[in-house]
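User: quick one, sequence for these tokens?
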């Protein structure tokens, strides 16, 4: 069992949904800060590329390929990190799924798939990592939520409902783990240039009958953001990494909005 990371100085992390997009950037930034990083995703090729980039950033990667909607997969991923490095200090639940469907036309399949990954898998990963962190009496969990959890979006209801579930889990787990010095927070990113965001907006344009003027539709959505632009993936990842490594030890059960003013507390 290889364990070349000096766990006395380096944090041990697991990032889900890390084969690309925000998850990949979080993994790279954690590696650049000296973390050993478990990279979990169903996409084997993307996971391997993230592992290469983590290595290039100075970190030690661990590839964990699997479907987190399977019953034992989240616990197995946490177990791989613990087996490799002797514990887990950071869990970032970034994996997510969403489909555009008018609520009254939504399918059982889309609801169950969305909730299985966005809620159940996240909860099981939190449970597995939380048990280890409780014994360590230290650790940080960051869950990726969405401004949509507070919005009425009739064409995206399964996704927004799942993110409301993430908010609830974050609060409950933060209170449950507080006596053990484990911090649990969330980040709510706004519109970013990721594959999931692009496919979502293409579908939103289709449902709205705006296929023929897609760019104008996207520009209109961008103008709704008070800062007048979309978030860069790197700056959202920076906020996540701050919660993982630098946020005050008194900060827990908090939701950090990175939406350019779209989501307001």
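Assistant:
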């Amino acid at each position: 069992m290889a364990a070349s990371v000096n766990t006395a100085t380096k944090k041990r992390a697991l990032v889900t949904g890390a084969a690309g997009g925000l998850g990949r950037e979080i993994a790279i930034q954690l590696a650049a800060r000296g973390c050993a990083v478990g990279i979990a995703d169903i996409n084997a090729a993307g996971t391997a590329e993230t592992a290469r980039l983590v290595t290039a950033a100075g970190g030690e990667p661990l590839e964990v390929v699997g479907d987190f909607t399977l019953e034992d997969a989240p616990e197995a991923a946490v177990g791989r990190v613990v087996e490799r490095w002797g514990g887990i200090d950071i869990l970032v639940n970034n994996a997510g799924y969403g489909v555009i469907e008018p609520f009254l036309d939504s399918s059982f399949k889309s609801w169950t798939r969305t909730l299985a990954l966005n809620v159940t898998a996240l909860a099981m990963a939190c449970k597995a990592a939380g048990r280890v962190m409780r014994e360590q009496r230290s650790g940080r969990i960051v869950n990726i939520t969405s401004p949509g959890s507070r919005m009425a979006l009739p064409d995206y209801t399964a996704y927004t409902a799942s993110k409301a579930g993430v908010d609830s889990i974050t609060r409950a787990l933060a209170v449950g783990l507080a006596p053990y010095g484990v911090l649990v927070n969330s980040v709510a990113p706004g519109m970013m240039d990721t594959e999931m965001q692009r496919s979502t907006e293409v579908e939103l344009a289709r449902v709205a009958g705006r296929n023929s003027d897609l760019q104008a539709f996207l520009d209109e959505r961008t103008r709704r953001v008070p800062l007048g632009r979309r978030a860069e993936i790197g700056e959202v990842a920076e906020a996540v990494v701050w919660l993982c490594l630098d946020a005050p030890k008194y900060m827990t059960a908090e939701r950090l909005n990175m939406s350019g003013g779209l989501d307001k507390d």
